[in-house]
Amino acid sequence: LQEIEQVYARLGQACIFRISPLAHADVDALLQARGYQLQDPSLFMHRQTQPGDLQGPSIVVEQTLSQEWLEGVCHANALLPHQQVWHHTILRSIGLRCGYVSIVQNGRAVAWGLAVLERNAAGLYDVVVESQMRGRGLGRALIQGLLRWAAEQGAQNTDLQVTGGNHVAQALYASLGFEPIYGYHYRIGRRSS
Q: What does the DSSP assignment read for 95-154?
């Protein structure tokens, strides 16, 4: 642990550990005792592609990341400027085939999602609906459209991650056939100066 902390200290970064069921329970207890803060409890969910996926709503899927899509996702997620920079960097670094979706109503985008294809699987990311537009079925249409696109590309499995406290999204994903596989969280130490 000290060696890992020294590496992060040399980089001037906070030390971060992702704690999944693969980690021994003592690891989480040790990090907590050393002052590492719990952050982002999340749930990994998975589903098999189903025949009905090909009958889902047809939505426009762009395969090129646009500045408008990036800005919309960042705004809807209320990312701070420094968070937007790293988010842009991460998305622009994806080397796999992607499908970017925006649902537009009254001339403006109100929901966004991303599917990343790898072999016969798809991962869904950045699924977000503007807060004032939630509860109108846009999230369901967005996921169903992404599932259709992924199935058309040959995906046999789809997975996603959802924050632990987002019970509305978890219920939506479960209603679409996603099942929880495991939970995880992060432990974050103080930034070294």
A: -SEEEEEEEEETTEEEEEEEEEEETTEEEEEEEEE-GGGTTSSHHHHHHHHHHHHHHHTT
**Regarding beta strands 121-129 and 14-19, do their DSSP bridges make them parallel or antiparallel, or are they unpaired?**
unpaired
Complete DSSP assignment for 31-95:
HHHTTPEEEEEEEEEEEE--GGGGGSPP--EESS--HHHHHHHHHHTT--HHHHHHHHHHHHT--
- For 122, the token pair is 């798809």
Q: Give the distance, in angstroms, between the CA of residue 94 and the centroid of all CA atoms in the same chain.
A: 13
Torsions phi, psi of 102, nearest 5?
-130, 135
Would you say 12 and 191 are in contact if contact means Cβ atoms under 8 Å apart?
Answer: yes
Q: Is the pTM of this model over 0.90?
A: no
pLDDT digits (tens, 9 = 90+) for 128-146: 999 899 999 999 999 999 9
